Amino acid sequence: MTEKNGVEEKTPLLSPQQQVTDVKEDGSDVSLSPGDLGETKKRRKPFHYSTIPTYMNSNNTVQTPIDSHTAATYSRYRYYSRLQHPQDDTLAIPDHVLPSYIFSFNVPFVSSIRDSEGKQSSIITIFSIWNTMMGTSLLSMPWAIHQAGFAVGIFLLVSMAGLTLYTCYRVVQSVSKEAGTVGMIEFSDVCRSHLGRWGELISIIFSLVALLGAMIVFWVLMSNFLYSTVAFIYGEAIGTMHPHNGTAVICDIPGNSTQDYHDVPHDVFYDVWNKTTTVPFFLLLLIVPLINFKSPTFFTKFNALGTCSVAFLFAFVIVRASEWGFHMDFEDTTSDAYIALFSWKFPAFSGLLSLSYFIHNAVASIMRAQRHPEHNGRDMTIAYILVACTYMFVGLLFYMTFPKQKECIKDNLLDNFYPSDKLAFAARLFLLFQLVTLFPLIVYIIRVQILDPLFKSAYPSVKHVVILNLLLLSVCVLFAVFLPSIGVIIRFSGAFCGLAYIFTLPCLVYMIDLRRRGKLRWYHVVIHGIIMALGVSNLLAQFVILFLEK
């Protein structure tokens, strides 16, 4: 990887829209446009000289598909490109000099998704942002709305969407501006440029914390779903599973505890198969073999399950809500259907939403493929509106129709259904399979970000990988045993990561950029100072709630 002035050279080699020059018999040149070459004309894939690992070679080192000749060619291009205007492609490298693997043929219907430069339409960009943000926090939305109160919950859903959209837009703008001069970069590179080495380290560390929080939540949910799935199969096999209709839900708050919680008699099986004391350890037998693979390529084939699981959860909530009907009462506090408009626990929802709307560490990669960068603001706004509507639909519909006291709603809405509920069983099984395929990907990303900078390899040896995996799994198991509450985990990790990546770093980078250009005004400092103060308050409020609850 070549560097100049401490800046990584990741600029795309050249624009794929080039003229092809032919030579007549008399020696004169003839310029042909791509359209003159026929439909079989090769086109270039997006190509850049990047430090991002793409595969592992036989020596277990992370490699990019670039040989020394290509690197030298790229360096020459970088030198000449600085001598010309960015819109001028006079010095663009001709096709025959470039490596063959960056070319592809036009395929019917594919061009409608990506153009000749490998760029994608606004619809694909919007869907990518929506699909990336949709996660396990969707299961906690009804619980979180109750923590905040009905009116405050709606307000936080909308206001946090707007706030995170603004800071996310600042991330994209800062990356785009920096990339225009030094090449393809990530937000951590922007933090290094504006805040120094410590800014880059903070952005990377907090990004890793977000991934670790996702790992912990995944482990808690996998233990939960595995427990319920096996309990259902066991109960059906021995004939002790009590059937329940769609209106039957679990409520185990003091004074209103649901009887026959497990649906089956307590026997030796349930002494061995316990949701918190044994199942998190049994889960190791399934996960440990999967996370030690050198490459997670196989698991990337199941990415579409994320969209399918959200669609299934939509259908599940709609079916149950249609069976329950609305149970809402804003006046009678003694009614089971009573809904409070405000609750002093509302920071729990703001903390959870900090992670629910968190895409700041991945948005630059998504928007880089945008066909029309001038529409970035519009497309991001539409995507955030869709995400907020999704959260609002699932959360509010489940909350307003829940047939018992709203205090009974759990931080995983599927925990409110008996193991004998067949539709809930299908949802748990579906989500279990999805999480099992996603978990190795997260472990792999963390492994690359930790081991590669330290040992110049994502798989330095079996010992290194096993030790790292043991540390990560130990943290996950401890949380699943002693704090199996995904609502608490999500709100703390969201508030902690959001403090840096949502509320602080984008604002600091933006203000430093304004100061460098001589455009920083007092109102910029006040507005962004308030945003950063909100991030600090959001994190501190999580500890206040925890203290008051005890």
Account of the protein in words:
With 550 residues, this protein is mainly α. The protein is 57% helix and 4% strand. The strands form four sheets. Strands 1-2 form a two-stranded antiparallel sheet. A two-stranded antiparallel sheet has the order 3-4. Strand 6 and strand 7 form a beta hairpin. Helix 3 (141-148) packs antiparallel against helix 10, helix 6 packs antiparallel against helix 15 and helix 15 (486-516) runs antiparallel to helix 16 (522-549). The longest helix is centred in the middle third of the chain and has 42 residues, at 197-238. The model is unreliable at 1-56, 100-116 and 259-264 (pLDDT under 50).
Secondary-structure blueprint of this entry?
Layout: E1 3-4, E2 7-8, E3 20-23, E4 29-32, E5 43-44, E6 55-56, E7 62-63, H1 68-81, E8 103-104, H2 122-133, H3 141-148, H4 150-182, H5 187-195, H6 197-238, H7 268-272, H8 279-291, H9 305-324, H10 347-356, H11 363-367, H12 376-401, H13 422-455, H14 462-482, H15 486-516, H16 522-549
Antiparallel strand pairs: 1-2, 3-4, 5-8, 6-7
Helix pairs in contact: 2-12, 3-4, 3-10, 3-12, 4-10, 4-12, 4-15, 5-6, 5-15, 6-13, 6-14, 6-15, 8-14, 9-12, 9-13, 10-15, 10-16, 15-16
